[in-house]
Amino acid sequence: MATEYLEHKLSLLPARPGCYLMKDINSKIIYVGKAKNLRNRVRSYFKSSHEGKTAKLVSEIRDFETIITSNDKEAFLLEITLIQKHQPYYNIRLKKGTGYPYIKITNERDPKMEITGQIKKDGAYYFGPYPNVYAASGTLNFLQKVYPLRRCQGHIGRPCLYYHMGQCLGACFKEVPEEKYNSQIEKIKRFLSGNVGEIKSDLNKKMLDAAKNREYERAAELRDQIQYIEATVEKQKIISNDSTPRDIFNYYVEKGWISIQIFFIRQARLMKREKRVFACVNSPEEELSTFILQFYNRRNQVLPKEILVPNNIDKDTLSEVLNVPFRTPQRGQKKALMDMAAENSKLVLQEKFRLMELDNRQTYGAQEQIFEALNLPYGHVIESFDHSHIQGTNPVSAMVVFQDGRPEKSMYRKYKIKDELENHSGADEAANTREVIYRRYSRLLKEEKNLPDLILMDGGIIELRAVMDVLHNELGIDNLPVAGMVKDNHHNTSHLIFGEDGQAVTLDPKSQGFYLLQRIQDEVHRFAITFQRKTRSKNALSSQLDNIQGVGPKTRTKLLKKYGSVKKIKEAPVDEIICLGIPQTTAQTIKITLSNIETHKKYKKM
């Protein structure tokens, strides 16, 4: 069953061929597929029953994206490229390249041609992938006959069999000049990049001659070689007709937003696609030009040999700045690629609009429901607090921030409760609340920063009154509303309390506002618990170190800063601990003592 989010995305799918990329809860691509009709194929995952691995895949899908192509064959080749790039977990058959080979020219003194299923960063030349392994093998055999490099192991002291057959340049018994290899490699590269007209014409002539001479086996062999070549280097729209590295930019503008698509053409095929959507402040032409300059100003961004852009872009200025030719294709394959980029831009932006509408209802609208329930004007920022401790020890507090219904994790804060032994027990919720509220909002006042629009405390009337007392009587803040998030007997979100008397405020349990309230309460609790566990772990380690002879505050600080856990200290070599400025005897004592502690723990568990 698809979520509401996915249902909206499914309704936007085009009835076009293309590829789809399924993502899990962490936005990791777990499956890549192709379809003649994206709408029907992708919807089938969520609208039909499945068994086995397909059912497992569907259960993990949380999002997807699509790339449209002009026909099924283009989608097929693009699918291979995407699988090789992303290595999705559920594409077992294709992931290792077992059925989709590349032709490789090795990077060595005496290079050779071979078929491989994987691309490595080894300086070699790669051509492919090829959907037909037999065609690739046949073409490789043909190239080895017409443009031989090295086929033997090399340096065996005598000519090999392939040399006698004219399929090896002779590295087996002599030193072949690099210039000869380079000449052959250039011919091979031209051939594999699609320049096969002259060779095909020559093969056709030889095939006809062999047939006239009744050399039918020879004629059949030549016919097969022609078919292999056609299947291997046949032109596709998503594949350029040359091997020039080029990038393609196009865009679509609507309702004050611009969607930009970048296609990366390498080795005569579409290697990668990037997309960007953002508010269009200036004219679309200015936005795209600025984007392109920023795009190539990124770290490690490699410039191509050619950049294709729409006609209304200032190509001369961009060419002068980046020292790369900018062109606008008027016809042919490059024009078709530009059109494809524009179509994908439109699809992405329209999807963005629909998802923005959904997102506004689920986030902005949900937060609005909380403010309405409290009879407050709408506010953008909610800050929520929770405390955590273990039987009064290691008390901590945590704060999470939600802005228009979305978590702003960069604004989250963690607090260690100060002076717990002198002032109060860590289990004193009211005292913890008073301390953390004072620290948070006295700092905001001091730094002249904006206050939130609502404070939500995970707790009851005691915490609620403690917050209001600090705000009103100690900090002089009178216009900051505070509410408490109350849980039921099953520790689930129940309702809000508001005001000095803690008046109960209920939300419809099926409303988006209630779901948001649950999420805020769960998130602040999770954040506090996680912080408390880390603090407890460090304190436990600190306590263990304090009991070791020779370990004082300075040594303890060095070990905590460097390792942070007993396990890591135990795994560290003595010499490494000594390098921290700790005497050898002390270092050895630390290792032995911690090992004995772990052994004792394991024995007690038995």
UniProtKB/TrEMBL annotation:
<dbReference type="InterPro" id="IPR047296">
    <property type="entry name" value="GIY-YIG_UvrC_Cho"/>
</dbReference>
<feature type="domain" description="GIY-YIG">
    <location>
        <begin position="15"/>
        <end position="92"/>
    </location>
</feature>
<dbReference type="InterPro" id="IPR010994">
    <property type="entry name" value="RuvA_2-like"/>
</dbReference>
<feature type="domain" description="UvrC family homology region profile">
    <location>
        <begin position="248"/>
        <end position="471"/>
    </location>
</feature>
<dbReference type="GO" id="GO:0005737">
    <property type="term" value="C:cytoplasm"/>
</dbReference>
<dbReference type="InterPro" id="IPR050066">
    <property type="entry name" value="UvrABC_protein_C"/>
</dbReference>
<keyword id="KW-0228">DNA excision</keyword>
<comment type="function">
    <text>The UvrABC repair system catalyzes the recognition and processing of DNA lesions. UvrC both incises the 5' and 3' sides of the lesion. The N-terminal half is responsible for the 3' incision and the C-terminal half is responsible for the 5' incision.</text>
</comment>
<dbReference type="InterPro" id="IPR036876">
    <property type="entry name" value="UVR_dom_sf"/>
</dbReference>
<dbReference type="GO" id="GO:0009432">
    <property type="term" value="P:SOS response"/>
</dbReference>
<keyword id="KW-0963">Cytoplasm</keyword>
<comment type="subunit">
    <text>Interacts with UvrB in an incision complex.</text>
</comment>
<dbReference type="InterPro" id="IPR001943">
    <property type="entry name" value="UVR_dom"/>
</dbReference>
<dbReference type="Pfam" id="PF14520">
    <property type="entry name" value="HHH_5"/>
</dbReference>
<dbReference type="GO" id="GO:0006289">
    <property type="term" value="P:nucleotide-excision repair"/>
</dbReference>
<protein>
    <recommendedName>
        <fullName>UvrABC system protein C</fullName>
    </recommendedName>
</protein>
<dbReference type="InterPro" id="IPR038476">
    <property type="entry name" value="UvrC_RNase_H_dom_sf"/>
</dbReference>
<dbReference type="Pfam" id="PF01541">
    <property type="entry name" value="GIY-YIG"/>
</dbReference>
<comment type="similarity">
    <text>Belongs to the UvrC family.</text>
</comment>
<dbReference type="GO" id="GO:0009380">
    <property type="term" value="C:excinuclease repair complex"/>
</dbReference>
<feature type="domain" description="UVR">
    <location>
        <begin position="197"/>
        <end position="232"/>
    </location>
</feature>
<dbReference type="Pfam" id="PF08459">
    <property type="entry name" value="UvrC_RNaseH_dom"/>
</dbReference>
<dbReference type="Pfam" id="PF02151">
    <property type="entry name" value="UVR"/>
</dbReference>
<keyword id="KW-0234">DNA repair</keyword>
<dbReference type="InterPro" id="IPR035901">
    <property type="entry name" value="GIY-YIG_endonuc_sf"/>
</dbReference>
<dbReference type="GO" id="GO:0009381">
    <property type="term" value="F:excinuclease ABC activity"/>
</dbReference>
<dbReference type="Pfam" id="PF22920">
    <property type="entry name" value="UvrC_RNaseH"/>
</dbReference>
<keyword id="KW-0267">Excision nuclease</keyword>
<keyword id="KW-0742">SOS response</keyword>
<dbReference type="InterPro" id="IPR000305">
    <property type="entry name" value="GIY-YIG_endonuc"/>
</dbReference>
<dbReference type="GO" id="GO:0003677">
    <property type="term" value="F:DNA binding"/>
</dbReference>
<keyword id="KW-0227">DNA damage</keyword>
<dbReference type="InterPro" id="IPR001162">
    <property type="entry name" value="UvrC_RNase_H_dom"/>
</dbReference>
<dbReference type="InterPro" id="IPR004791">
    <property type="entry name" value="UvrC"/>
</dbReference>
